[in-house]
């Protein structure tokens, strides 16, 4: 028996109108009700009739997403949310892992009428893509794009604010000797995190212990910290450009028996899964992956159905998650 939208309404105890608004990604639904509807959909295994929908639209019913790497739980979380929300709208997601437009997969997605729209997740050569997408008249949305001039249809996180709040947190804990290990220079997020960090230090009349630029990798954090150790001069706190760099720093410190956070405090960035799974749990600046995915789909579907003609960009705030790598937990007495 085919499950209908009426069954979903009955199961969730909400009106068909509310269910329909959730399916259409309307912002006006209360979060509690949205969850009820989503739970009902899962339990009933409701699938909007994609064929009927795509016939009504006269389109393929496929949305493409291009991402540069899969070794990243933040990207994973964004892709998962995009996939879930699109499924509710009867769309199928085609994901391509590609470092540039010349690669076969991404070219295939952009070929004549393969997709109804495209999401670019932290793209490398966004200009090349945009030129091609505009030429073929394919609606697109950028997530975490590199160039401010392409912000017309984009969802980004305020990385400047993230870097600023990481530094403020360390300064509030009494640190004045703070190093920053930043990621790859070609990412706007790298530059914004660093300028937020520097601004906070500036306001307190501090200068960074050292700022080093490298890749978003554990080895970069590890090697940088080894250099400090062998030179016999350590900062009392480190703000790492992402959680992987932070883990490398923590590894190097723990190997030498240096206690985190008592001797050196460490802050990461992203809220990668692993940051809350290894001791000491990592203080990090979390990016709201679910809100990013939802907002990007919402924007893209509005472009596809023509309700969003002019560009709009959305900037979300990251969130400081304080854990053991900066503040030692007090033992709790039972």
TrEMBL record:
| InterPro entries the record matches | HTH_LacI, LacI/GalR-like_sensor, Lambda_DNA-bd_dom_sf, Peripla_BP_I
| Annotated ranges, domain HTH lacI-type | 3-57
Transmembrane annotation, as ranges:
none
Q: What keywords is this UniProt entry annotated with?
A: DNA-binding, Transcription, Transcription regulation
Q: Does the keyword Protein biosynthesis apply?
A: no
One MF term in GO for this entry? transcription cis-regulatory region binding
Positions the record marks as coiled coil are none
Name the source's superkingdom.
Bacteria
- Looking at the keywords, is Mitochondrion present? no
Record's SUPFAM superfamilies?
lambda repressor-like DNA-binding domains, Periplasmic binding protein-like I
Read off the Pfam families from this record.
LacI, Peripla_BP_3
Name recorded for this polypeptide: Transcriptional regulator
What organism is listed for this UniProt entry? Paenibacillus pini JCM 16418
């Amino acid at each position: 028996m085919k499950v209908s939208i009426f069954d979903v309404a009955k199961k969730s105890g909400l009106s068909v109108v509310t269910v329909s608004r959730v399916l259409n990604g309307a912002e006006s639904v209360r979060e509690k009700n949205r969850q009820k509807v989503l739970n009902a959909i899962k339990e009933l295994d409701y699938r909007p009739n994609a064929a009927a929908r795509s016939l009504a639209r006269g389109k393929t019913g496929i949305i493409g997403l291009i991402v540069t790497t899969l070794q990243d739980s933040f990207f994973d979380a964004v892709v998962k949310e995009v996939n879930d929300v699109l499924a509710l709208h009867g769309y199928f997601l085609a994901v391509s892992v590609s470092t540039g437009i010349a690669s076969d997969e991404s070219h295939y997605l952009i070929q004549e009428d393969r997709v109804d729209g495209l999401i670019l997740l932290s793209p490398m050569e966004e200009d090349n893509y945009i030129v091609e997408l505009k030429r073929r008249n394919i609606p697109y949305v950028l997530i975490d794009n590199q160039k401010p001039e392409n912000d017309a249809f984009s969802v980004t996180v305020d990385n400047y604010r993230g870097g600023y709040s990481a530094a403020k947190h360390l300064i509030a804990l009494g640190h004045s000797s703070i190093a920053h290990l930043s990621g790859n220079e070609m990412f706007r997020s790298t530059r914004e995190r660093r300028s937020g960090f520097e601004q906070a230090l500036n306001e307190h009349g501090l200068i960074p212990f050292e700022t080093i630029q490298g890749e978003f990798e554990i080895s970069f954090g590890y090697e940088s910290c080894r250099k400090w150790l062998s030179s016999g001069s350590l900062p009392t706190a480190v703000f790492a450009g992402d959680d992987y760099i932070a883990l490398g720093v923590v590894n190097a410190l723990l190997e030498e028996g240096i206690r985190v956070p008592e001797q050196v405090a460490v802050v990461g960035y992203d809220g990668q899964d692993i940051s809350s799974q290894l001791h000491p749990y990592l203080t990090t600046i979390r990016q709201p992956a679910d809100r990013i995915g939802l907002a990007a789909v919402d924007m893209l579907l509005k472009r596809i159905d023509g309700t969003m003609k002019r560009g709009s960009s959305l900037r979300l705030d990251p969130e400081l998650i304080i854990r053991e790598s900066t503040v030692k937990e007090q033992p709790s007495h039972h």
